[in-house]
Amino acid sequence: MGKLKGKAEQVKGRTKEEIGSMTDDKSMEMKGKEQKVKGRVEESAADAAARMRRMGEKKR
Length: 60
Known about the structure:
By secondary structure, the chain is an all-alpha fold. The protein has two helices and no strands. The model has no long low-confidence stretch (mean pLDDT 94).
């Protein structure tokens, strides 16, 4: 579920960033960039957790 939520955050961030860019709203643009990064981190964390689960299952 974390990977999907991370992707969704990236899309929302990209949208905010584009709207901020089009309207010359630097604050919104920066918030969008921040949200994209948070989404990437969440997606990466979910990937790492899944890899750890798979590694644990292989050791059994």
